[in-house]
Write a structure and sequence with these properties.
The structure is a homotrimer of 140-residue chains. Chain A is of the alpha+beta class. Chain A has one domain: Jelly Rolls (Sandwich). Helix content of chain A is 25%, strand content 43%. In chain A, strands 1-8-3-5-6 form a five-stranded antiparallel beta sheet, with helices on one face. The first copy, chain A, has a three-stranded antiparallel beta sheet with strand order 2-7-4. In chain A, strand 5 and strand 6 form a beta hairpin. Chain A is elongated and about 55 Å long. The N and C termini of chain A lie close together (8 Å). Chains in contact: A-B, A-C, B-C. At the B-C interface, strand 3, strand 4, helix 2, strand 5 and strand 8 of B face strand 3, helix 3 and strand 8 of C.
Amino acid sequence: MRQLHHTFEISTCGQGLYNFTAEVANWLAASGLRDGLLTLFVRHTSASLIVQENADPDVQGDLQRFLARLVPENDPLYRHTLEGPDDMPAHVRAALTQTQLSIPFRAGRMVLGVWQGIYLFEHRRAALRREVAAHLMGEE
Amino acid sequence: MRQLHHTFEISTCGQGLYNFTAEVANWLAASGLRDGLLTLFVRHTSASLIVQENADPDVQGDLQRFLARLVPENDPLYRHTLEGPDDMPAHVRAALTQTQLSIPFRAGRMVLGVWQGIYLFEHRRAALRREVAAHLMGEE
Amino acid sequence: MRQLHHTFEISTCGQGLYNFTAEVANWLAASGLRDGLLTLFVRHTSASLIVQENADPDVQGDLQRFLARLVPENDPLYRHTLEGPDDMPAHVRAALTQTQLSIPFRAGRMVLGVWQGIYLFEHRRAALRREVAAHLMGEE
């Protein structure tokens, strides 16, 4: 049994879903590990992780617009407003999605379904550099 | 340290929660592993995983009806409508719950609380065959 | 490769977020493990786990009030009312957040971002004793 750490850096340019499935698959392939468990952990509280459909980009747009309406900006409920109108909604949207994902892998490939992609879900408007910590544990 | 892969196939007949705790517990027992980590990963983006109360079935019904109202069909916000009125809401409901669950096990049993069951949460209306990838890593 | 189990007991006194990052970090440090994967699993269906900002306490208050409004008490939709008006909303709020968190650790420290804390999210009003099962797998 062997393990490996890595950090994916993802540059975002506004709210939306950023597909980094290929980067993760390439890292896994380069590791030489064939069977085990892969874990991704986003190191921020205003961005999140999500597995969603990679076929029709409208799914990603609809999901983002749905969350934007469900968790609106400038809600009088918010007291945390110092970091801008998009910050507190970003925290809530992150809380409603995922901070971490673990995906088993087999014969060197993640057990993702055919239509599944791995996305960083950026909830803030500014261009940012996001870090996703990654961990592999498995056997060759 | 030893590991094991499996795929649970769950036939669904419409929206709702499908308890497959016993299947998972039996697979774990048959593995002979006593201490370690079990991971479940749903290979779809319109169904999800959830740990919920296994005592009063009304909890499951209330949860399902709450999500159905929160994420309605035929919302004018949706652009992704080609796969039917229940498809885009299914993606959103899946995003708001879980794609993956990891549960430690000890002395051959998952550390679930007394009232906790493991459910596949089906968000589509049609009868479908769903796959949940499963992974064990641990010691005898 | 070595593993370790533990149960964190957290006494709650009403709804809100309870930070137990230090307890987890101390347990990890005491284990002597330096590289691996840490998993937390809440053994209840009316409380959940969440990683959120540890800087401005208003973030936690806003998040709690947002969920309280999104998933209100005394909703005529609920059939499960026997355990009190706060019980069914607690199940829904738990379903919308997380039951489990896995966090890689490196050089003896969890790969949390600077502003990230680990919280038990209590969704019930009564004072309760909650259990979070914890598992470490890794190397010295």
